[in-house]
Amino acid sequence: MDSWIATRLPELSLTAVIDILVVAFLIYQVAILIRGTRAAHILIGIIVIGLVYNAAIWARLEVLQSILSGLMPYTAIAVVVLFHPEIRRALARVGRRRFGRSARRRESTEEIMLAVAKLSETKTGALIVMERNIGLRTFIESGVPLDARVSRDLLLSIFQKGQALHDGAVILQKDRVSAAACFLPLTMNPSVSLQ
After folding, report:
1. Closest CA to 42 of 53, 54, 30
2. Whether 163 contacts 157, CB under 8 Å
3. What residue ranges do the domains of the chain occupy?
4. Pairing between β-strand 176-182 and β-strand 144-149 as defined by DSSP bridges
């Protein structure tokens, strides 16, 4: 087994390992960026065309190979046109990543505090749950999905008496309102009254 690996793999230098890790990281970031968008389906289509092209080379299918090789120069332009919104979002995210995260978190905290202060003035109850280390997907799925930016106005409108989303909890993930009207479990602590 060891001799098979030794003959199949060239000696990996440190730069080759770093190169592989950087490429893997970039592929992972692209996958995160396009997950859940129409770009994911387009990317799968491009990958399938690439696999068909390689199969045509391997099987010596000259007509198919010439057709696909004729399309290859236009692929770069098609990628830019088709992925324009995702490319724009990725570049904006790279620019904001270092400095924007703490500013967004501070802004979200201020919005929550303003909403809670107003709800306190009107004596309106509100359950606001912030996800930290333990995932809350089970509880998010029990409610109405929103995926909206945290804002004072949104929280006030959700907890306004008589509204459809008023009953239940709002769950926040990072700086987003993930869901409203979520059901939370009762406490198992016997010293807390269930009344």
Report:
1. 30
2. yes
3. 2-82, 101-182
4. antiparallel
Architecture of the 101-182 domain? 3-Layer(aba) Sandwich (3.40)
Q: Which of 42, 147, 24 is closest to 84 using CA atoms?
A: 42
Q: pLDDT of 29-87, one tens digit each?
A: 777 777 766 677 777 888 888 898 889 889 888 898 888 888 888 877 877 787 777 77
| Phi, psi (rounded to 5 degrees) for 73 | -60, -30
Candidates 138, 139, 147, 151; CA nearest to 181 is 139
CA atoms within 13 A on the CB side of 127: 16
In angstroms, rounded to a whole number, what is the distance separating the alpha carbons of residues 27 and 6? 27
Q: How far apart are CA 54 and CA 59, in angstroms?
A: 9
H/E run at residue 179: strand 176-182
Structure tokens at 179: 């869901």
Amino acid making up residue 61:
L
